[in-house]
Design brief:
Elements: E1 7-11, H1 15-27, E2 31-35, H2 38-47, E3 52-56, H3 62-66, E4 81-86, H4 91-99, E5 104-107, H5 112-136, H6 147-164, E6 168-175, H7 185-200, E7 207-212, E8 215-221, H8 225-241, E9 244-246, E10 249-251, E11 255-261, H9 262-265, H10 269-285, E12 291-292, H11 294-303, H12 317-320, E13 322-323, E14 326-329, H13 334-344, E15 348-352, E16 358-363, H14 364-371, H15 379-382, E17 389-391, H16 396-405, E18 410-415, E19 418-424, H17 425-432, E20 461-463
Parallel strand pairs: 1-2, 1-3, 3-4, 4-5, 11-12, 14-15, 14-20, 17-18
Antiparallel strand pairs: 6-8, 6-11, 7-8, 9-10, 13-19, 15-16, 18-19
Helix pairs in contact: 5-6, 13-14
Enzyme class: transferase
Modified residues (4-aspartylphosphate): 56
Pfam families: CBS, GGDEF
Length: 467
């Protein structure tokens, strides 16, 4: 099973507490989300699916958060663990918090070290509960088996198929844009209506489970991938043509569908389950309201559309550079070089020769180690004349190869001798890493603006250049 950071939802009317605590939890490699009131908390429980919720009991309607039915509707674990922050640890307060739905309490004043210990204890408890839930649990609302039940049934069907020589297929349905229905009972009603349509088309040997809130899985024993695909496509069309009741309105909806079979996945239940999820994700990324099976993925590969190796085709060094907006003349005194690095928080700056061409670069280390000690120097004496450089039209693959063959931490990008910017080894590392979910913070108020690039063209600053 793929590991991920623990997701923690903080609920408090104290916005300073939310900011400080979220920052601490993020530093501890936890995913922290915040809500300033009970309504926001309810939405976050539905959309973020936190593993743990920490509720300040001074929050209006804090009890509604602790007793929210959404705590029992997590898609991958038994329930959402709750810690209440109380004004005191008196027996009365402790009893009220635990009776109100909390699993643990922390009295004020809150200490981050104690909070971290309690969170780790909660994680251990959740792990035990989740293992039991995946193994034998059933979803309380619909009565359908969860992902643990699905895997157990899948193993049974695969064992039978190994004896008979027949195929086993798995179809996974996902309601497109499910969050638009909001965290209210109306969403459960939508899922019930979709379930009814699917059930009406199921053969007696088919079995249905609900691995997550907005997904339904159907096992098709003795069915090939093509047969499962055809069956799923007919249901997709039926759902797209049907009318659904939500609150007091009638609406249309669609489903994305993934199809996998033992013939292309092998006799291991977990591999079949991973394949069907991959195909569902393919269907969703294709625009939704679509059925994806192995054939669609193979067609995409044949067309070259899913080749990860072509991700940066056509990309040049000019596309990935960090633009430079401070340029130093070779005659710039050391004092001005030091001031420029401090004022603009530079790591590296280009130096221009008398013809205003790239003559090399000065790094922060040089400024700190040499310029500060020898202020009578000029940029010409501080510059690294052999600083590595590449043309702006060089391909991305050439850039990668250069870094792989040379130990340099940074390369200057020039256009016919004119410096445009720099690319560091760290920049390439960031491009190769998966995008972190924290990059999509709902509120960017607390994110330093220095983390964002200036889209508009910056004002060029030339130090020591002749007028």
């Amino acid at each position: 099973m793929q590991r991920r950071p623990l997701r923690v939802l903080l609920v408090s009317p104290d916005r300073s507490f939310l900011r400080r605590t979220a920052e601490f939890l993020s530093a501890c490699r936890l995913e922290a989300y915040v809500a300033a009131d009970a309504d926001q908390a309810e939405w976050a429980l539905a959309s973020r699916e936190p593993d743990l919720v920490i509720v300040d009991t001074n929050t209006p309607r804090a009890a509604a958060v602790l007793q929210s039915p959404r705590r029992d509707q997590h898609s991958t674990q038994a329930y959402v663990y709750a810690i209440a922050i109380t004004d005191s640890d008196s027996p009365e307060r402790v009893f009220d918090a635990l009776a109100g739905g909390a699993d643990d309490i922390i009295p004020r004043p809150l200490r981050f070290t104690e909070l971290l210990v309690r969170i780790r204890a909660a994680a251990r408890s959740l792990e035990v509960e989740s293992r039991l839930h995946r193994r034998v649990g059933r979803r309380s609302g619909s009565g359908l088996g969860n992902s643990g039940v699905l895997l157990r049934l899948l193993r049974e069907d695969l064992r039978d198929a190994a004896t008979t020589g027949n195929e086993v297929s798995l179809v996974l349905f996902d309601v497109d844009y499910a969050l638009r229905f909001g965290p209210d009972p109306g969403f459960d009603r939508i899922v019930e209506q979709v379930t009814t349509i699917i059930r009406s088309e199921m053969l007696p040997t088919y079995r249905m489970c609900q691995p997550s809130v907005d997904q339904l899985a159907v096992l098709l024993p003795n069915s090939t991938s093509d047969e499962a695909y055809q069956w799923a496509e007919e249901i997709r069309q039926t759902i797209a043509a049907a009318d659904f009741q939500h609150a007091d309105s009638t609406l249309k909806l669609s489903v994305s569908v993934g199809v996998a079979a033992s013939a292309d996945s092998g006799p291991i239940a977990e591999e079949l389950w991973e394949n069907v999820q991959e195909r569902l994700e393919f269907a969703k990324k294709s625009g939704g309201n679509f059925v994806a099976s192995l054939r669609q993925l193979q067609n995409e590969d044949a067309a070259g559309g899913s080749s990860h190796g072509r991700l940066f085709d056509g990309t040049t060094t000019a596309d990935v550079l960090r633009p430079t907006f401070v340029q130093l003349a070779s005659t710039t005194p050391a004092d001005e070089v030091i001031a420029a690095f401090a004022k603009h928080d530079l790591d590296v700056a280009p130096v221009l020769d008398a013809q205003r061409k790239f003559a090399g670069a000065i790094t922060r280390d040089v400024v700190q180690n040499r310029a500060v000690r020898s202020r009578e120097l000029t940029a010409a004496e501080l510059v690294d004349a052999n600083f590595p450089q590449m043309e702006s039209n060089a391909s991305f693959s050439e850039l990668v190869n250069y870094f792989s063959e040379h130990p340099t931490p940074c390369v200057a990008i020039v256009d016919r001798g004119k410096p445009l910017g720099f690319v560091s080894r760290d920049d390439l590392a960031l491009l190769s890493e998966p995008i972190d979910s924290t990059s999509y913070a709902e509120s960017r108020d607390d994110i330093p603006t220095t983390e964002f690039y200036v889209v508009s063209r910056p004002l060029m600053v030339e130090m020591g250049a002749e007028a």
